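Structure tokens please, single chain.
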Amino acid sequence: MPNKARIAGLINEFIRVIGMAPVVFGRRELVTAVQGAGLNRDMLINLMLEEVSKPDKGGAMHLSKLLPSDDFATLMALPTPAPERASALAVHKAIADVFFPRAKRMAADLDIEWPTKFEETTRAQLQANLGLTWG
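Here you go.
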């Protein structure tokens, strides 16, 4: 059974991390931008793992056996960021394109209140400052 509190936490933390992108890119902290993309990729993986119904999910060392093949293929298809503005922005977008629809579906299915205002404000800031949009 998915953990509602954990999923809600992942949603809010994902929005918080991607929402810091204007500061990171504004300071030209490209290594930090890559790190932020990694954090959000990890949150996507954790969101996917919440849907795995095995009682003992074990460690992350065997995601290819634990996740459904389509989820694993999705992860494998995500680009890897280079410490370059265009690359890091593209990876943030690609991860958000996968994370948000899945998270919204899970939130609706599990009756988790979606942080609408937080997401809307974050999207507006990312669009205005970086031209970054998703979904």
